[in-house]
Automatic annotation (TrEMBL):
The species this protein was found in: Musa jackeyi
Subunit structure: Part of the 50S ribosomal subunit.
One Pfam short name: Ribosomal_L23
UniProt name for this protein: Large ribosomal subunit protein uL23c
UniProt keyword list: Chloroplast, Plastid, Ribonucleoprotein, Ribosomal protein, RNA-binding, rRNA-binding
Compartment(s): Plastid, Chloroplast
GO CC, alphabetical: chloroplast; ribonucleoprotein complex; ribosome
Length: 93
């Protein structure tokens, strides 16, 4: 599960949960087949579709030097009906 970084909770991703679609950020070098295999093996679900897009890194300034963060890939994973992934939400204090 090293390729999957964390689940994403945005307005769109919460809306997609109703369609049995889960969103997460993954390592940019991971392939769709690797992510599909990891999700099916770790969560015990059946994946029927995967959509991905690469998000650019954000600009960061350190004094006079302009740098940027690393880019990453976001996957939208669609599961077969009847399967679900438990959401891990930590309560912040």
């Amino acid at each position: 599960m090293d390729g999957i970084k964390y689940a994403v909770f945005t307005e769109k991703s919460i809306r997609l949960l109703g369609n049995n679609q889960y969103t997460s950020n993954v390592e940019s070098g991971s392939t769709r087949t690797e992510i599909k295999h990891w999700v099916e093996l770790f969560f015990g679900v059946k994946v029927i579709a995967m959509n991905s897009h690469r998000l650019p890194g954000k600009g960061r300034r350190m004094g006079p030097i302009m740098g940027h963060t690393m880019h990453y890939r976001r996957m939208i994973i669609t599961l077969q009906p009847g399967y679900s992934i438990p959401l891990l939400i930590e309560k912040r204090t």
